Amino acid sequence: MEPDLFHQEPPKQYKKAIVVGASSGMGKELVKILVKRGYNVGITGRREHLLKELKAAYPGRIFYKAFDIRDLSQTTKSIRELIRSLDGLDLLVLSSGIGFLNEELDTEPEFQTIYTNVTAFTDIMTFTFRHFQKHPPGHLVGLT
């Protein structure tokens, strides 16, 4: 029988994570799992009230920055601040994305999807990859 790698205890050196897109869905549930596994977690999302609720559920274990990943002027700045708050980074999970039912084939929703799911994704992953090159080891996970 194959070992269940997801439910094993993480190595002690991997205890600092950031989850981008943590205010709901898979990102939010992943934060809960990570905290239970001993991680301190930086969380991001657009809906600050939901981030505050998650932080309140795990006092002292969660740090948050509210921003829209499409605002590239805030993205790397905010992730850098979370890395400082966590005193390092071992894991970044990007669990943020959008999609629209666009029966009219309007271009604006498509551009918003590209900007979120491609441009912002690339910006965050590139920044974090470079961080891990300077401060190894580290793990990048993209949920799209």
How would you characterize this protein structure?
With 144 residues, the protein is an alpha/beta fold. It has a domain at 12-97 and 138-144: Rossmann fold, CATH 3.40.50. The chain has 4 helices and 5 strands. The chain has helices spanning 25-36, 48-57, 72-86, 107-134; strands spanning 16-20, 40-45, 62-66, 91-94, 139-142. The longest helix is centred in the last third of the chain and has 28 residues, at 107-134. The two termini are 29 Å apart.
Query: What's the CATH topology name of the domain at 12-97 and 138-144?
Result: Rossmann fold
Largest beta sheet: what is the strand line-up?
3-2-1-4-5
CATH class designation of the domain at 12-97 and 138-144: Alpha Beta
Query: In the CATH hierarchy, what is the superfamily of the domain at 12-97 and 138-144?
Result: NAD(P)-binding Rossmann-like Domain
CATH architecture of the domain at 12-97 and 138-144: 3-Layer(aba) Sandwich
Low-confidence stretches: none
Distance between the termini: 29 Å
Mean pLDDT: 91
Q: Work out the helix count.
A: 4
| Sheet with most strands | 5 strands, parallel
Number of strands: 5
* Shape type: globular
In short:
With 144 residues, this protein is α/β, with parallel strands linked by helices. It has a domain at 12-97 and 138-144: Rossmann fold. It has helices at residues 25-36, 48-57, 72-86, 107-134, and strands at 16-20, 40-45, 62-66, 91-94, 139-142.
